[in-house]
Structure prediction request, 375 residues.
Amino acid sequence: MGSKNLKAIVIHGTKKPTVADVERYKEAMKEMVRLLEASPPINKGLRVFGTAMLYDIVNYLNVMPTDNFNRVHYDGGEQLSGDYIINNHDIRSEGCWGCPIKCKKWDAKRNIELPEYETIWAFGPNIENGDYEKIVKANHECNLLGIDTITTGATVAMWKELRGENYLERVNEMVEHEDLKLGSMRIARKYGAENKRTDIKGLELPGYDPRGLYGQALSYATSNRGGCHLRAYMVAPEIIGKPKLIHRLSPEGKAGLVVIFQNLSAAIDSLILCKFTSFAMTEVEYGKLLSAATGVEYRAEDILRAGERIYNLERLFNVRAGFSAKDDTLPEKIFSGENSLSRDIFEDMLRQYYEFREWKDGVPTDEKLRKLGIL
Ligand code: SF4
Prediction:
């Protein structure tokens, strides 16, 4: 799409979608809403604070990437916590169409959107800025420009580290700037600073430091679209305790879990459902919804298999585009310095991951593809 200068495809329809079994669908919906309402991270977290609910706990656990990933804790962020934000703004909650959670927070008086956690982090700790208003403004500018705030923040941080200039209050100038428009990876390459990169496969890491979250580290490294937290949001089990709390600083069992989370996430994306539903729902409930909607029976294992097929297909696409096992890694900064992640531990998790996936050197084997009905 990028090479064709295509930014988006908009589809407009006038007919209502039909549902195969209306009664069964209503039942499945009722169950979904019941589970969402019973989930504390949703009803006491997202609904009240939005994603800014994460700020305090991430910082407390020392997994807050700070100063372009040079540190893992930020001391100057009193204004950046979810609690501070909702107590100091006239909050209006908004959400995606039909959502009962409404995690989007707006300042009702000024009628301006308030930033998500990732944006607060990217324009806050990662460039050592504790001024919330500056973050609100930069977020708004990015929304108008249609540029991603994680990548923009990471690029501001990279430039600040390399050249000492802070573009936080001039993000609109970045899109025309000879260097800044390149994004952080190409800037690092241009200035011979590969060791300062904070991206994986060209996509900048978000606001959960992999040095203190072993599952998230593996998830980032093996993500088909690079340093993305949404391919397998291991923050859920490693910080939030969903579906259950696991030891974030242990490699035990992480490989298998990352595979399952990646498969499930691919299926959720394909269902066009919000990832936050997975704080309360599992493949069982997604299967019930899809079965009722389509009239085709989807058991839990069918949902996971659909996700696995997607993940393997994406990997094949990447292989054809020239990516290989050497790209399934983390930025150099993560393996060196204070709180660094042991390369040996990481490589052992990666080896186990390939085993679970039945991939050889990061590439799906023919046998695996046959099992999935792809070959
Ligand atoms: S669908 Fe998800 S992202 Fe959208 S408002 Fe609801 S919880 Fe938030």
Remarks:
- The first strand starts at residue 91 and ends at 94.
- The longest helix spans residues 300-320.
- The beta strands are 91-94, 104-107, 112-113, 199-200, 203-204, 359-360, 363-364.
- The chain has a mean pLDDT of 97.
